[in-house]
Amino acid sequence: MIKKQKIYILEQLSKWLGILLMIAIPLEILMFPSLPNLFGCLMTLLSYLIFRYFLKQKYILRSPFAFFMYLSMFMYRYLPLLATLTEGNPISVGFERPYETFIYESLVFILSSLAYYLVCNPKQRVKNSTLQKLLFKFDFFKIKVQTIWFLGFIGFAVRLYTFSTGGAEYGDVGGKFLDGVKYLLYAPMVLLFLDLTGLPKYRKTNKVWIYLTIVFLINIASNSRAAMITPIAIFGLLFFLHAVKNNIQIKEIISPRKFFILMLFLVFGLNMLSDLSYAMLYTRGGRSSVSKVELFQQTIATYQNKSLMQKIKTDRSKKTRSVENYTQGWTEAYIDNFMLNRYANLRITDETIYHADRRGYGDPVMQEHFWIQLILILPNPVLKFLNINYNKNDYRFSRGDLLSGGSLGSLVVTSHVGDGLATFGYWYFPFQFILNICVFFLLNTFLYFKGKKVIYSAFGLMNVFVFLGMFRNANGMIVDLGYCIRRYWQGIITYLIVLTIVGLIQKVLFKK
Fold first, then answer.
1. Comparing C-alpha atoms, which of 392, 411, 445 is closest to residue 170?
2. Which of 17, 229, 235, 476 is the most buried (most CB within 10 A)?
3. In the Cβ-directed half-sphere of 366, how many Cα atoms lie within 13 Å?
4. Per-residue pLDDT, 178
């Protein structure tokens, strides 16, 4: 099914990840000689050595969606050293619990790697699980080009609708349903990599690029930084999977000169996206009082005003650096680049471990709130049926709010490690290990083995960026449990409902 051969993109990735470490670790030790920074370097090196073992075609093609989640775990331990060093800071900048942070994050990564190995080991006999067979029976893996376009237009309509209504509130069943299918907006991107679904290559790619350009502009107008980078990230992840599957060498599709130009464009493109994100934050305060078109115009005007942009960056830097220690309040200041900060902010682990130490490991208040949050994962109709009388509006605050002792409703993020230790003490580590096994197993149900072929569901391909972000700093272990208990099943059911509706529409419109 998967031939043994050297995969160009994986060889190059492994090689350059290693080269960057060979440069970064000596520089870190020379520029910032300290024992905490040495521990940080050892964590980074250990993460790379373990990740390199799994950076193989047989692991990626057999479990791509689980791999993308595992990739985010690796990025969280690998990127901080490089990102802080390029900004002239040590990896432990601002840390107050550096030894615990690096040791515990290393331990979690080892346990996560073991979980990934147990679930995704390619040496296991190729077979579909009961869940995969059930999904196949319901045509979950069946897709047509025409259907993909329909799904994209539905996602596009949902995106335009949510522009005017905003996010779904608690109890808003219709809003929650629409919020759960907004990923369909990116369905046409699958057409660029149609071989992953088992279908022949799609030739009319110009239409796809026009559609995606419109989507990108709308996402900028939404004043959401996450929405801005989502289509770029999905394309990158799908291209990576396509390149691994077909063993594509960059020189086969682009000349060295064009590749160099592309790299320059990416560097400047990242800077442009970073500046756009600052412009979005600046104009965000008035987004409730102006139309989306006006908000888009204000964002672009702010971006083009170079003196204003410089002032915004300076003011923001002063604000984020104003908190020198955790007793002064919550801070997420670590890496200036917002995209890297989203996936590599190791300081949040340090900060949440500090607060876990302050509250005490296995804190009863954290435990009580955890179990309440676990119950509140269930939909309101189920809670009413079970006669559970919790008002979800009373718990509209994050685990980070509770852990940090700040204002409830601030919705600050937390780390898996800090939140886990504060809630379960050292029992957190085996709990997280078991939970990772469950999540990896569920993610693997989005592909199907058919003879010697692997078919990736369009649902899985549309959600690759979601999988990449499943382990980043957010609300701790409760997010993983929420996925296993509700979001996994809800995603499948809503997708099948939409597929059924699209199938009926197609029958009506195109019946012979």
1. 392
2. 476
3. 31
4. 81
Give the Cα separation of 318 and 241 in Å (integer). 41
DSSP category for residue 484: I
The pTM of this model reads: 0.89
Neighbours of 417 (CB within 10 A): 25
CB-based burial label for 263 (10 Å; 0-12, 13-18, 19+)? exposed
Neighbours of 171 (CB within 10 A): 11
Whether 40 and 31 have beta carbons less than 8 Å apart is answered as no
Whole-angstrom CA distances from 506 to 13, 424, 441, 495 are 43, 51, 34, 16
Would you state the structure tokens that stand for residue 425, as one six-digit string? 């003490």
User: Beta-carbon neighbour count of residue 36 at 10 Å?
Assistant: 17
Asked whether residue 297 carries a pLDDT value surpassing 90, the answer given is no
Half-sphere exposure of 160 toward its Cβ, with a 13 Å CA cutoff? 7
- Kindly tell me the sign of the dihedral angle through the C-alpha atoms of 255, 257, 263, 268: negative
Taking residues 147-155, what's their average pLDDT? 94
Helices (H), 121-144: 130-137
As given in the structure block, the two tokens for residue 297 are 């115009």
Q: How far apart are CA 23 and CA 31, in angstroms?
A: 12
CB 249 within 8 A of CB 8: yes
pLDDT at 190: 95
State the sign of the Cα–Cα–Cα–Cα dihedral 81, 83, 84, 87: positive
> What pLDDT does 166 receive?
56
State how beta strands 453-456 and 447-450 pair: antiparallel
